[in-house]
Amino acid sequence: MRLPVLIFDIETVTDLKSGAHLYQLDLPEAELEQALMKLRRQEAGTDFQRLPLHEIVCISGLWIDEHGMKLFSFSREHDSEATMLKKFLSIFDKRHPTLVSWNGSQFDLPVILFRAMYHGLSAPSLFDQGEIDQQKRYNNYQNRYHQRHVDLMDVMAMFNGRHFQKLDDIAYLLGFPGKRVDAGYHVPAFMQSGEWSRLTRYCEGDVLNTWLIYLRWLLLKGQLLLEEHTLWVQHTIQYLHTQPQHADFLSVWQHSSQQTEFTRTDFPEQSVTTPSNESVMPFQSSPSSDI
């Protein structure tokens, strides 16, 4: 595995202000969202808004490097959308991680692009395609077939949209928690009720499921040996034991793991020891200071 790795996910709501400006609507906020949904249904036959009208309310990630792993979230509880984006984009100025997502090439990255432009931000480390750094002509974060950004939904469908699958279904099928911990899309409700911890936990859950699928993907491709895969899984379990907000994730994972022969060993009866410095995971348990 090429370190560092950054698994990420975003949560969004409709940007009512921008929507009103785009469609020249002068309506009370209570009526505006319904009007925008109606217009979108007329345009495309769906309530799912066009990408520039997705306002980011949470960005979560799992950072893995030679020092360990660290979950993090930026949310609207403490930061504006522009500040969240600045924090996230600054990561790529420091390091050039392998970026991993589920549907990131069709949703998360384009939304980040539009919203960064909306706020007048610059992010060449993420969006340069060789104009500045010639090396990125051949391996950049936008190219569908490059490995700098691995969109698992896309690569596991063999780049055929007819084969796209839901993160929830694939994670649960493989013996991981999926979204069974907090099923359904509740982001607007979490925001309205001020349940920011539930919002970040929801987003981080998607990140964790994506990470576990990524490990299985690397095993499939021969980029991880079986014993290496096992150590990464066990290290992830150990790390989550230090994250009390994800106790339910661990509990559902333990139950789901019993449904397949391969994942049944994810939770052995005896406690797992911390990998030594000589193991195939060359890092200590302390989190990275890069995030």
TrEMBL record:
Residues 46-251 form the Predicted 3'-5' exonuclease PolB-like domain. Keywords: Exonuclease, Hydrolase, Nuclease. InterPro entries: 3'-5'_exonuclease_PolB-like (IPR019288), RNaseH-like_sf (IPR012337), RNaseH_sf (IPR036397). One of its GO terms (molecular function) is exonuclease activity. The keyword Nuclease applies. The keyword Cell inner membrane does not apply. It comes from the Bacteria. It holds the Pfam family DNA_pol_B_exo2. Residues 264-291 are annotated as: Disordered. This is 3'-5' exonuclease. It comes from Acinetobacter towneri.
